[in-house]
Design brief:
The complex is a heterodimer of chains A (333) and B (544). In chain A, strands 3-1-4-5-7-6-8-9 form an eight-stranded mixed sheet, sandwiched between helices. With 333 residues, chain A is of the alpha/beta class. Chain A has a single domain (27-324), classed as Rossmann fold (3-Layer(aba) Sandwich). Chain A has eleven helices and nine strands. In chain A, helix 1 (48-63) crosses helix 7 (216-227) and helix 3 packs parallel to helix 5 (136-144). Chain A starts with 47 loop residues before the first helix and ends in a 9-residue tail after the last helix. Chain B is an alpha/beta fold. Chain B has four domains: 16-33 and 491-541, Alpha-Beta Plaits; 37-117 and 445-482, Alpha-helical ferredoxin (Fumarate Reductase Iron-sulfur Protein, Chain B, domain 2, Orthogonal Bundle); 128-222 and 358-422, FAD/NAD(P)-binding domain; 224-356, FAD/NAD(P)-binding domain. In chain B, strands 5-4-3-6-19 form a five-stranded parallel sheet, sandwiched between helices. A five-stranded parallel sheet of chain B has the order 8-15-9-10-11. In chain B, strands 12-13-14 form a three-stranded antiparallel sheet, with no helix packed on it. In chain B, strand 13 and strand 14 form a beta hairpin. Classes of the chains: A alpha/beta (333), B alpha/beta (544). At the A-B interface, helix 1, strand 2 and helix 9 of A face strand 1, helix 17 and helix 18 of B. Strand 2 (86-87) of chain A pairs parallel with strand 1 (14-15) of chain B, so a sheet runs across the interface.
């Protein structure tokens, strides 16, 4: 997923690189990037979703030469970007209901087809609530009909806009307003929730991928590839939420990076239901390093810590590593 | 405008740009420049990070020109400098230090190969400066003074340019054609050199030549002596004479078993030279242990590889015919060697003393204002000026560590202050940036890349010839090595801040112009600070 040339000074990990030719550089490093989500939006300091949305939509804008329409589910992204009468969006953008973004996307794509404007492409986007819970029926329908829409889920692992309630993307052990840190097993229950990227794969749609805001090159490559394909596509981006996770605003990218490096958030691509590529872990770290800076996991640590729950979360990371082959050489457990 | 609005819409659509989110901020990010450890460490004051930046893009001529703003001798430096910069390189904490010295040598060699020349001064000042000694310090000063537009005359007592670089450093470390070429390039700028010209008295010389200022850079050519009871027939030489005679027609006769007394770099140099001259055994006698040896460890290592032997914790009590009496030593609690009374005999055809060197300061006699102590002349450390106005000094003859890089640095510093003194001005003390520490970096963004190792001459030729031991890097390797630089503390335009801002509050100004914060929208989240690879952004509290 990374550029073929290695530059040891800047690495292949920085946003830009003066040593690359302009066409090899990332969209975000360009003076001409479309800034699809413009300044002045009301997202919190260090918002991962605002960042993820600009990364993804800017890349889609470049891939379609600006011929792009977005449908948006209700959620943080919608609320902070469009308080009436202002908008931060610099592309045609429509919001209808919480649960119907995929269906609206389908409708726009159908309309463009009828009008013979095949060059205009459609994305539908929402948070994890609008995607994995409320909009899930419409999403599954869009998948099974193989509608020509790229659906992007910005996953911050809870309903942040309404005050941090649990969603089906909330990880086990996390404290939310509806999964309080009380009782024998505080926080979100183990064994609940759903993995929508795997469910999307089960629909055997042309393209499914996961990404994080910590790896821009990987994210942009995936968006670009998705826009080169017709049919239903799904991109699931992990976007840390400083407010809901109880993390420092400057740690947004660091946390996304650690989510991948622990194995808790596997980064992969799949075509037609088969995994085709995984982004390997570069420097494996124990889950504790990822969990500790987040107050939503504070009850796992300290004097009355939850060793068993920590072990359970580590086991989940280990399972991902094994299942997706996230390490080059399997280290002995 | 009478625009028909859709049903229930009463306001024109507006942009969120109307919402100045900068008012949320309690802290603001600011771009800073920090002093990288390599630059801070360099005795010659090179902007190492600055010239590596040019080398990274393969623009070697710009890199060389940037480097030679401070140090005119990169090919020499790339061979003999002890590169303390690499010892402090932050990359050393990730994998291995950047091979600064080897890239410097590559640039120096590239310049010689391509025939790059220095540009002369833009205008002439009309002032005339005398430089005494054509060693690293003197030639460095001559170069800088000439660039500033002064007439420069160098008077050198010896028959050739280079001073201690020629008479103190063996050929296998510094090939003479490299040295000569870098010296000549300074001469070609219009520097007048008078060889075989000893300055007997500086005051007289300045008066006779109508010089406006002088820079004294006499090397330490006089060997120190130690009292060793010796028989007439014992063959005792000093290291510096042995090394000097290597430059002449007649190579010194040392015999088959050569003993060198001392523990500095000169002791190592002379032992390795003896080996190359055919000695079957070259033995260094040193009174302390390897850990306490002043010689640089890599040179000790190279010497040991070549078969030089060392008798640690030993002193020489007596020199007889064909044999020496050695006394074993022991280190006391303070680490000082103490005699044990235990004696042994060591066969030796010759004994070479390498116990340090002194400077001949006789040219300073009768000059008012000069202060001489511990065999060196005292100077103002900030300006290199002696107690006598207009007379500056540097290199071996002032109190400092004695090596080529320090000497070159003295030359540059003195030249700047001579220039200021001649113009009747003073150089304002520039405030140094705060250090760029490792803790400020975000090393995630640097790929893993271990150091490139320079090729070494094969062992058989190392002990039988004076061919250069250390090879140079190929272009590919030099480029690779340059790109390992982390650019600690200074923006290298990686676009990270521009990319990671969730609020588009970083303005990219274009190639070479860096970035600016748009404080109208910056919410002060600090993501740019956390994700800046090189630590070039600070977060400071807003004033209310």
């Amino acid at each position: 997923m990374t550029a073929p040339i290695k530059f040891y000074q800047t690495g292949t990990f920085t946003v830009g690189n003066r040593l690359l030719s302009p066409e090899q550089r990332s969209v975000q490093s360009s003076l001409e990037r479309s800034n699809s989500l413009n300044s002045g939006h009301r997202a919190c300091q260090g918002c991962g979703e605002a960042l993820g949305a600009r990364y993804a939509v800017d890349a889609a804008m470049r891939a379609t030469q600006g011929q792009l329409i977005a449908a948006n589910a209700t959620g943080c992204l919608e609320v902070f970007s469009t308080p009436y009468p202002e908008t931060s969006w610099q592309l045609p953008w429509i919001h209808s209901l919480f649960g119907n973004a995929a269906a609206v996307g389908t409708g726009i794509a159908a309309a463009m087809k009828v009008k013979g404007r095949n060059n205009v492409r459609v994305i539908a986007q929402g948070g994890d609530g609008g995607t994995t819970d409320i909009g899930f029926g419409c999403l599954s329908g869009m998948f099974e009909r193989n509608d020509d829409v790229l659906y992007i889920c910005y996953d911050n692992e809870a309903y942040m806009n309404t005050g941090v309630q649990r969603s089906s993307a909330t990880p086990a052990g996390a404290r939310t307003a509806t999964t309080m840190a009380v009782g024998a097993e505080p926080g979100a229950q183990f064994g609940q929730g759903k993995n929508v990227p795997l469910i999307a794969m089960a629909h055997e749609i042309p393209y499914v991928a996961t990404a994080t805001v910590a790896d821009l090159h990987d994210l942009e490559t995936k968006v670009e590839h998705a826009m080169s394909i017709r049919g239903a596509r799904y991109l699931h981006i992990l976007v840390p939420c400083p407010l809901g996770w109880g993390a420092a605003s400057q740690d947004t990218i660091k946390l996304a990076r650690l989510a991948r490096e622990t194995g808790l958030f596997p980064v992969f691509e799949a075509e037609g239901g088969e995994v085709t590529a995984v982004t390997k872990i570069r420097r494996r770290v124990p889950v504790e390093e990822y969990l500790r800076p987040q107050k939503r996991f504070a009850h796992l640590f300290g004097a009355k810590g939850q060793q068993q729950m920590l072990a359970g979360i580590q086991a989940r990371a280990d399972r991902n590593i094994k299942r997706f082959g996230l390490l080059d050489v399997e280290t002995a457990e | 405008m009478n625009m028909q609005k859709p049903f229930a819409i009463t306001l024109d659509p507006g942009s969120s740009l109307a919402n100045k989110t900068g008012t949320w901020r309690t802290e603001r990010p600011v771009y800073v420049d920090r002093l990288p450890p390599c630059n801070a460490q360099c005795p010659a004051g090179e902007d190492i990070q600055g010239w590596l930046f040019h080398a990274e893009s393969g623009d070697y001529e710009s890199a060389w020109r940037h480097l030679t703003r401070d140090n005119p001798f990169p090919a020499v430096m790339g061979r003999v400098c002890y590169h303390s910069c690499e010892g402090v390189c932050n990359r050393g904490k990730i994998d291995a230090a950047v091979g600064i010295n080897s890239v410097e040598r590559f640039l120096g060699d590239e310049a010689l190969k391509r025939g790059w020349q220095f540009k002369g001064p833009a205008s002439e000042s009309g002032k005339h400066v005398l430089v005494v000694g054509a060693g690293p310090s003197g030639m460095s000063a001559a170069y800088h003074l000439r660039r500033m537009g002064h007439r420069v005359t160098v008077k050198e007592a010896g028959p050739l340019l280079g001073g201690m670089m020629r008479f103190g450093i063996p050929k296998y470390r510094l090939p003479r054609e490299v040295l000569e070429a870098e010296m000549q390039r300074v001469v070609e700028m219009g520097v007048k050199v008078e060889l075989n010209t000893r300055v007997a008295n500086i005051a007289t010389a300045m008066q006779e030549g109508h010089f406006d200022a002088a820079f004294l850079a006499v090397g330490a050519h006089i060997a120190k002596r130690a009292f060793i009871p010796a028989k007439d027939s014992s063959h005792i030489l000093d290291a510096i004479s042995v090394l000097r005679s290597m430059e002449g027609e007649d190579q010194p006769m040392l015999g088959r078993r050569v003993v060198v007394y001392g523990g500095g770099n000169t002791a190592i140099d002379v032992a390795r030279t003896a080996k190359r001259l055919g000695a079957t055994e070259a033995i260094i006698v040193y009174r302390r242990t390897r850990e306490r040896m002043p010689a640089h460890d890599f040179e000790v290592e190279e010497a040991l590889e070549e078969g030089v032997m060392v008798k640690w914790l030993s002193t020489i009590r007596q020199a007889g015919e064909g044999a020496l009496t050695i006394e074993k030593m022991t280190l006391d609690e303070k680490g000082n060697p103490q005699p044990t009374g235990e004696l042994e005999t060591l066969e030796a055809d010759s004994l070479i003393l390498a116990l340090g060197q002194d400077v001949d300061l006789s040219l300073l006699e009768g000059v008012p204002g000069l202060e001489i102590s511990d065999g060196v002349v005292q100077v103002d450390a900030a300006t290199m000026m002696t107690g006598h106005p207009g007379i500056f000094a540097g290199g071996d003859m002032v109190p400092a560590e004695r090596n080529v890089t320090v000497a070159v640095g003295h030359g540059k510093k003195a030249a700047r202050h001579i220039d200021a003194w001649l113009r009747g001005t003073q150089i304002a003390q520039s405030v140094k940036h705060a250090p760029a520490t490792f803790e400020r970096l975000n090393p995630w963004y640097y790929s893993d890349a271990p150091k490139t190792v320079r090729p070494q001459l094969e062992m058989a030729r190392r002990t039988s010839s004076f061919d250069e031991v250390q090879g140079g890097l190929t272009e590919d390797n030099a480029l690779f090595e340059a790109r390992r630089c982390l650019s600690c503390g200074n923006c290298f335009e990686c676009d990270n801040c521009y990319g990671v801002c969730p609020d588009n509050a970083v303005i990219k100004l274009g190639d070479g112009k860096r970035f600016q914060f748009n404080y109208d929208y910056c919410k002060g989240c600090g993501v740019c600070v956390a994700e800046c690879p090189c630590g070039a952004i600070d977060m400071i509290p807003e004033t209310v």
